[in-house]
Design a protein that fits this description.
The protein is elongated and about 100 Å long. The protein is an all-alpha fold. Helix 2 packs antiparallel against helix 3, helix 4 packs antiparallel against helix 5 and helix 6 packs antiparallel against helix 7. The protein contains nine helices and two strands; from the N terminus they run αααααααββαα.
């Protein structure tokens, strides 16, 4: 086998790369504003890194841990990316489908490792499970970006997920073909080549997730600046009731307007001049906190 496609060192490289991405996400998490979902992306990077190390350490650790646990941890990492995107876009994703995928992967890996050993079948089923998760992730991302950023809905990351999902489908088709027409060593060669390709995909995924985080920060900062410009600019206000005209041509009380655009809350009282003018029968006009009638 060509050294470039040897799956064990490639898996170790993939694990180290994923842990490096974990450190980058951790730095963002601690130094910048974080949104729901970033914590799950942190865990996903850690799981993908651990999966690469478990597979790459084959021969130094029990083989069943490298095969069964390593593949299960890898699938968990992909699922957490999708669930993190669901939280980022404030969308509830069903748990049952993820649980069924994990149970199926665990059952299949156990069956085709202990009872009917077959690298081809294990790769085929892992490819199908990965393809389902990645294609679903691409759809969740596409819909979420269109809803959160309607002015600029383009998102290349969704195509990265679709490309990786399509790659897994193609890999699964090749593995299915190898079940019919076996070729010695080809399954292991494809396994190593796919790790090399997926390592690049993992880098692109987490760079895209970080850019998605930065995009949301930029959008909210731009919205805040626009609100400040609106408040600091010329406001159309009624000369009698002091309501403010908003963009929809409706009129809004000044208290509600400032609360919506500046987060200000109000407590109401009465100044001495208004107390004297409107309520002359009440107490000392210089003490607006005492509204007790004079005898």
């Amino acid at each position: 086998m060509p050294p470039l496609f040897d799956p064990l060192p490639l898996s170790l490289l993939s694990g180290i790369t994923a842990w490096g991405l974990f450190l980058a996400l951790l730095m963002v998490f601690r130094t910048q504003r974080s949104y729901p979902g970033l914590r799950l992306w942190l865990w996903s990077a850690a799981l993908l890194g651990s999966a690469g190390l478990l597979i790459g350490l084959r021969g130094l650790i029990p083989l069943w841990i490298s095969v069964i646990i390593g593949n299960l941890v890898y699938i968990c990492g992909l699922i957490l990316i999708r669930r993190g995107l669901g939280r980022f876009f404030d969308r509830d994703l069903p748990v049952l489908g993820d649980a069924l995928i994990l149970a199926g992967v665990l059952l299949a890996q156990t069956l085709f490792f202990f009872f009917h050993p077959s690298l081809t079948l294990r790769c085929l089923l892992i490819s199908l499970a990965s393809a389902v998760i990645l294609l679903q992730t691409g759809r969740v991302l596409h819909e979420g970006v269109h809803r959160m950023f309607p002015q600029e809905p383009a998102c290349p990351l969704s195509w990265v997920f679709r490309l990786l999902g399509g790659f897994h489908l193609l890999r699964g088709a090749v593995m299915a073909l190898l079940l019919v027409i076996p070729v010695d060593g080809l399954a292991q060669l494809l396994f190593g080549a796919s790790i090399l390709f997926l390592n690049l995909g993992t880098i692109l995924i987490f760079i895209g997730l970080l850019s998605l985080q930065a995009r949301r920060v930029t959008a909210e900062l731009a919205a805040s600046r626009q609100e400040l410009r609106t408040i600091a600019g010329l406001l159309p206000i009624c000369c009698h009731c002091k309501k403010i005209r908003v963009e929809s041509s409706a009129w809004q009380p000044i208290e509600a307007y400032l609360h919506d655009h500046a987060g200000a809350d109000f407590s109401h009282g009465i100044c001495p001049e208004c107390l004297k003018l409107h309520y002359p029968e009440y107490g000392d006009p210089e003490d607006s906190s005492r509204l007790v009638p004079t005898p």
